[in-house]
Design a protein that fits this description.
- There is one protein chain.
- With 332 residues, this protein is an alpha/beta fold.
- The protein folds into 2 domains: 130 residues, no CATH class; 194 residues, Alpha-Beta Complex (Maf protein).
- The radius of gyration is 26 Å and the shape is elongated.
- A 6-stranded mixed β-sheet has the order 2-1-3-4-5-6.
- The chain has 11 helices and 6 strands.
- Helix content is 49%, strand content 13%.
- Helix 7 links the parallel strand 1 and strand 2.
- Bound molecules: inosine 5'-triphosphate (ITT).
């Protein structure tokens, strides 16, 4: 657990670096809170350096440079008037302290810097909508899921920028240690929201077979022992069910979709696709257990449906659509 926390802390720093070096207006606005935190840390370092300084002002100069770098990432990239003013004040404060140090003052008055840094922190609050462009991150590297959720949000009239976890390559995958789809979806969403400072959506899904009391369930992706080996997973399941007659082959795909905000707010919704299991795989579309699940009311398997046909009835489509009012409530 500790290890994961540390990994996430490292990931947070890495994400911040990515954002700051990219420095587009959107990214900077999104990460205003993190930049304000970084500035606060540098100001603390400056306070320390001033109280430590005898004649050596190197540490003071280093802290001033740090603050300038962080400011540079906010300057010219925000259209928020309050933030622009706070940034200008802080820049002036840094310049005046730098001049004082150059003129031989080893214990300069840094009040203009501490005051202005406080203003930056005040403006850059997580719920300051004026600062926050609505970027939403989806905890997956699966392009199909991103397209599907994007289409659903756009259909609902939600003008959000949706990005996948690939946009933040330094963030490690989160271990799915939950025992339900909802727990795992929440774990992933919270981890991503914390690491990026963005609202995050995550889903967890799988196949639940009635006669197996809901298994493979959360173990669907690694039922045969190897994570993501769809063919081995499907073949093992078929072998396990080989003696089970048609009336007892009911199963459903289940999906939990969670939305987490960086402040810890969370919501989770679920969707199901009920059906029955075939005795042999049929169809080439889709992935995972698609070739053996025949959705209720259909006479073909999921792997014989087009992506659009499957999305219209799928567990994930249902969960993502159920997420729309939640996204509207928390981000709309
Ligand atoms: P992420 O990278 O987004 O986590 P994933 O495919 O590894 O995607 P999911 O939680 O979506 O993880 O699914 C877990 C497993 O459940 C997946 O590997 C399949 O075996 C099965 N599964 C889930 N949804 C399915 C679907 O729509 N059709 C077929 N199999 C599905």
């Amino acid at each position: 657990m500790k290890h994961r926390r540390l990994a996430l802390a490292v990931a947070t720093a890495a994400a911040l670096t990515t954002v700051l070096s990219g420095c587009g207006a959107l990214d900077t606005a999104m990460d205003c809170v993190k930049t304000a935190d970084a500035i606060a840390t540098s100001v603390q370092n400056l306070q320390q350096a001033v109280s430590n300084a005898s004649n050596d002002v190197t540490q003071i100069e280093e802290s001033l440079n740090q603050i300038s770098t962080e400011l540079g990432n906010l300057k010219n990239t925000t259209d928020n008037a309050d933030l622009s003013k706070a940034v200008d004040d802080l820049t002036k404060g840094v310049d005046s302290v730098r001049t004082a140090v150059k003129n031989g003052d080893a214990t300069p008055d840094i009040t203009p810097i501490t005051d202005a840094a406080g203003e930056v922190a005040k403006v850059c609050t997580p719920d300051n909508r004026a600062m926050t462009h609505q970027r939403l991150i989806l905890a997956t590297r699966n392009a199909g899921k991103i397209t599907e959720l994007h289409a659903i949000l756009a259909d609902a009239g939600l003008d959000l920028e949706l990005v996948g976890a690939d946009a933040y390559p330094d963030i490690p995958d989160v271990k799915e240690t939950g025992v339900t789809f909802a727990e795992n979806a929440l774990l992933k969403a919270h981890a991503l929201a914390r690491a990026t400072g963005l609202p995050a959506v995550a889903d967890d899904s799988g196949l639940c077979v009635d006669v197996l009391n809901g298994a493979p369930g959360i173990f669907s992706a690694r039922w045969s022992g190897t994570h993501g080996d769809d063919k081995a997973n499907l073949n093992l399941l078929l072998a396990q069910l080989s003696d089970i007659a048609d009336p007892h082959r009911a199963a459903h795909f289940a999906c939990a979709a969670a939305l987490a905000l960086p402040d810890g707010t969370e919501r989770v919704v679920e969707g199901r696709l009920p059906g029955t299991l075939r005795h042999a795989p049929v169809g080439t579309n889709g992935f995972g257990y698609d070739p053996i699940l025949q959705p209720a009311g259909h006479d073909v398997t999921c792997a014989e449906l087009t992506p659009a046909e499957k999305n219209a009835i799928s567990h994930r489509g249902k969960a993502f659509r159920a997420l729309v009012p939640v996204v509207k409530e928390l981000l709309g």
